[in-house]
Amino acid sequence: MERLSRRSFVKIAGAATGAAALAAAPPIARAAIEEDAKRTNPTARVPEEPVVAYVRDAKRGEVTVTSGTAEHTYRDRVLVKRLLRAAGRKDVS
Amino acid sequence: MSSHREAPAISQDPVADNADTYAFVSPDDPSTVTIITNYVPLEGPPGGPNFFEFGDDVLYSIYIDNDGDALPEITYQFQFRTTYQNPETFLYNTGPIGSLTDPNWNKRQLYDVSVIRGHGPGQNGKKQHHEQDGQGRVIGGNLACPPCNIGPRSTPNYDALAAAAVHHLPSGETVFAGQRNDGFFVDLGAIFDLGDIRELNTLHLIPTPTGTSVDPLKTMNIHAIAIKVPISMLTRDGSAPKDPLSAKSVLGIWGGASRRKVQVRDDNGNGTRGSGPWVQVSRLGNPLFNEVVVPVGDKDRWNAVDPIDDTGFEEYVNQPELARLLPVLYPHEFPNLAAYTADRADLHAILLTGIPQGIVPGFQNFTGPHPADMLRLNVAVPPTTSNPNPIGLVAGDAAGYPNGRRVFDDVVSIELKAIAGFTIPLVDPSYSVDGAVAAVSSYLTPGVDRYQSTFPYLGTPHDGYDTPSS
Question: Which positions in chain B touch A50 (Cβ < 8 Å)?
Answer without folding.
Answer: 262, 264, 273, 275
